[in-house]
Amino acid sequence: MKKISLNLRILIPILLLSIISIITIHSALTYTSASLGNLALKQAIWYGIGWIFVFILIKLKNEYLYQLSWSLYLLGNFLLLLLLFFGTPINHSKCWFMIPGIGSFQPSEFMKIFIMLILATMIHDFRSDYDNPNCKQEFLFIIKSFLIVLIPSILTFLQPDTGAVLIYFIIYFSMIFASGIRLRWFVSFGIILSCLIGGVLWTYFFRDDLFIQLFGTSIFYRLERIFNWSQGAGLQLENALAAIGSAGLYGHGYNQTPIYFPESSTDFIFAVFASNFGLLGICVLLGIILFLDVSIIQLARKKIEDTNRYIVVGILGMLLFQQIQNIGMTVGLLPIMGITLPFVSYGGSSLLSYMLIVGILLNISVKKERTYYYK
Prior knowledge:
Layout: E1 2-3, H1 8-28, H2 39-60, H3 62-67, H4 69-86, E2 88-90, E3 93-99, E4 103-105, H5 107-129, H6 135-157, H7 162-178, H8 183-206, H9 208-227, H10 235-245, H11 269-301, H12 306-330, H13 348-366, E5 371-372
Antiparallel strand pairs: 1-5, 2-3, 3-4
Helix pairs in contact: 1-2, 1-11, 2-13, 4-5, 4-6, 5-6, 5-7, 5-12, 5-13, 6-7, 7-12, 8-9, 10-11, 11-12
């Protein structure tokens, strides 16, 4: 018999977040369209399926995913391409396939994992081939790895799903930084990116007619939405802030969200939780999230294989960005983007992708701890 000691520092926060997720989504049903069904029940089912995925992955081991990294990457890009032709438009975006009897499927959620896997194997191979790479070798590797991320980014941007594209590049820069690449490349890229962004913004503010000719109206309105966030305008943000601000120390109580705001079970799930459970509830939720993040940081600091370390850093970068962005936009500190709160917001595809991440982390954390017992 084989006995595996699971990392409770990762397992317990996920279990607590799953409970918070289902309870909060159920509370959000008050302002959710009845045509969507019981989202809380659906979330519970997705969590159940997700835990099955976790235990299957623990049996298979991460090495199996690393071996399939290129195949999974190509599959992810193929699905993103198909979306542009056969995706079901929802809110003017083609981000989902509609599967009869099951619901929607969003390939970009799984593409995040595929990018992590392919980058982890590429960085490992590069470090294996070059103990002390020179500038040319590093430059060629940066170009190659950047193109690997650029292809799905373009396909995802065309859907359009700007939030997912940002997450792709957060993963990329986190993992490349962890690879030990010389700091000069990050400085050079920062200068180039600043110049490009400066040029685009100058055109947007001072030559809007030229901007629309170059980039189209879709990108113009997306930027307009981002820059208007600081004014606090819009029903969604105003009502979310009203719900949070009126909650006080203990909140309005479970299932007592005082005011309607769109996307209450997905992008603005934090506002529902905060309005129900107040400042004390917020402290508990943030404490659980912080505990999970610190546990992942501690895992990255352990003596683990390089490939595993790279993917842990990618996971950490993705989770931190989504947590900060989602909570920040809910309270009006950051622009509103279609980015959910990991393990809490409703979503089948996103939740299953997060549970695959849990399986990967548990595999890495128990690798040195596995013990074997024989009868």
